[in-house]
Amino acid sequence: MRSRVFLTVAAAFMVAAVPAVGQSPGKSSPFTLDFDPDNGVTQEVSPDARPDGKKGLHFTVRFSIVRHGNADASVRDYKVIVEEDGREVARLDVPEPKLSDELSAMLAIDISGSMAREIQGDKSNQRIKQARSAAELFVKNLPKKADCGLLLFDHEIQDKVPPMVDRAPVLQIIKSMEPRGGTAYLDAAKEAIDMLAAQKVKGKSREKALVLMTDGVDLHSKNTTLAKVIEAAKKAHVKIYTIGIGEPGTGKEVYSVLVLDHSLSMEQRAEDQDKKTKIEALHDAATKFVSILPDKAYSTVLPFGSIVGMPGNFSRDKARLTQQIKSLQPNGETAMLDGAYEAICALDAANLQGHKAVVVMTDGIDNMSRHRPDDVIRRAKEARVAMYMLAFGRESELAQAMPEMERIAKETGGEFRHARNSQALIRIFEDMSNALHDDGIDEVALKKLASETDGMYKHARDVNQLKIILQQISQEVLKKEYVITFDSPRGFDGTPRRISIKLVRASGEVVTDVNTNTAVRGVVVPEMNTFVYLGFLGVLGLMLAVPAALGRMLRSST
Q1: Global model pTM greater than 0.90
Q2: What number is the average pLDDT over the span 534-546?
Q3: Do 446 and 211 touch, CB atoms closer than 8 A?
Q4: Left, alpha or beta for 53 (phi > 0: left; psi -120 to 50: alpha)?
């Protein structure tokens, strides 16, 4: 029988996830053939009779061929053969890939403060270090003539390079990236999509991909929304591949108390080079903390000098919180431990459901408090409050206070930092705000970005997995999908088939062979086999007769 063969070459990017079955190419092969046995074969019964009078059965096979980024080999030496039960039903040449001419990719990397987190307690190994290494490998593995761009983001868009063939500017920025600030990946994604959309190449239709990696929830995007990013990606035909680093966020509300020193020494400068006094620097830094509070964050201000002030209600009113901060003026001595203790009591008394933290900033030795460090630690543990301790100013003036502050932070699950000047104070307040409110990745949003733009989401629970994940994604953007539909030579006889897909060289050598057993759906019909059909009818008749016979036997015995 003469088979009908239909062939469609789909877009350069795969929609589905990495296939369940696939074989790596041999050392001399530039290709990998991937095939998913669970979803790669579909079937359809044709209403038209075949020439021999039997009902037709069509199989549709979907598979992909990966051309490796820097492989240099002629595809004219390769063919794909599809077989049913060892019988060839379709053959096609592997077309010459043009990915070096038609691919533009943007890599958007999160460089927020949380990317500085250590991996398994190793101070020399941070998330940013692994991200840097994985990103360099991804860029180098793209086809040599493909365009590649870069965008770094924290709570704002930082360095960016438009898509270009030259890799040097991209690799240079990746090499020098350092973590700080918050997370605004939606703003970053929209900017990257616009950069891809703006790229004009005469006479060429480019495939466009955005690879976005982040370790946090978007707390700071101001210019766009998730829906608008997806809409822009669809309009520009950009597929988004997202990578979530770390654990999913809890989504709980966060309550914090800013315990701020306004003692008389705050009228001085932290360093001789500082243009602002310490109280002016505190106004700027604490205001920055408040300005980047996310929607689920509530805070209040508790000032201290010789005496401790009264905290207000927990609020999201940034204007009111800012006004309280800027009204502080230098006065009195230092009662830092009393302020910390009262802040814990305020959080505990409010009976709040969510994360609770106290941020304490002081510029000198505590000389007025009734409470001791052990009192603060005990009370914080009882109320389950994390203490974030910040020393501001000259180390010589803080030498006695800093060991106690560091111990309080460590034993309550918080963090200790020392700001030597006004610029460092602003950055540390910013980092503390992000550390408090960024408690993990938003998998729902990242999955939605990927699925609705025909991309892919990957979860890197361990940041050491980044290299492997980016390698998988780089293979995805180099894939060609093929769809072959053919008439089964055996027709609709109800028996399973073995569908095989082979990638072979012109010499006949099989490079890759993937296959699956496919059951034929449908009922048993007479045209399959008359004796089989009559056998089934006999079984059905027996099943109908047994209840009637049992009924007669029961009546007879009664």
Answers
A1: no
A2: 69
A3: no
A4: left
